[in-house]
TrEMBL record:
Origin species: Pseudictyota dubia
Principal subcellular localization: membrane
Top EC class for this record: oxidoreductase
UniProt family annotation: Belongs to the ERG4/ERG24 family.
GO cellular component: endoplasmic reticulum membrane
PANTHER family noted in UniProt: 7-DEHYDROCHOLESTEROL REDUCTASE, DELTA(14)-STEROL REDUCTASE
Membrane protein topology class: Multi-pass membrane protein
Keyword hit for Amino-acid biosynthesis: no
Name of the protein: 7-dehydrocholesterol reductase
Ranges annotated as spanning the membrane: 30-50
Alphabetical UniProt keywords: Cholesterol biosynthesis, Cholesterol metabolism, Lipid biosynthesis, Lipid metabolism, Membrane, NADP, Oxidoreductase, Steroid biosynthesis, Steroid metabolism, Sterol biosynthesis, Sterol metabolism, Transmembrane, Transmembrane helix
Biological process terms in GO annotation: brassinosteroid biosynthetic process; cholesterol biosynthetic process
């Protein structure tokens, strides 16, 4: 909750007080934001798919965290790994928890 108020406060200061950008920046750039978001999302999906197929993360039980089938479309839709990681960096937690939830406040 605090991060939401900080984000709104910084947006207000940047748009109205310091006049760094127009307050309608999201409305003005909506189409390019959607296209960029979709391209990034498909890139993440295919990266996680190939990473899960060829270099799966190790789950808490010590076994690979993989749930794969022979159906490529099903694997792309459901995902192969439960929590895809690069080293200790959890992609799922970062993309859903940080980027996704914080950006919803501005939409």
């Amino acid at each position: 909750l605090l991060s939401m108020f900080v984000s709104f406060g910084l947006f207000y200061l940047g748009a109205y007080h310091f006049k760094l950008f127009k307050p309608t920046i999201f409305y003005d750039n909506w189409l390019s934001a959607i296209v960029t978001s979709n391209i990034f999302s498909f890139g993440v999906v295919f990266f996680c798919y190939f990473k899960g197929k060829y270099s799966p993360s190790i789950g808490p039980s010590g076994r690979p965290d993989v749930n794969s089938s022979s159906n490529v479309l099903g694997d792309l839709y459901k995902g192969i790994e439960l929590n895809p990681r690069i080293g200790d960096f959890d992609l799922k937690m970062f993309l859903i928890g940080r980027v996704g939830m914080i950006s919803w406040a501005f939409v």
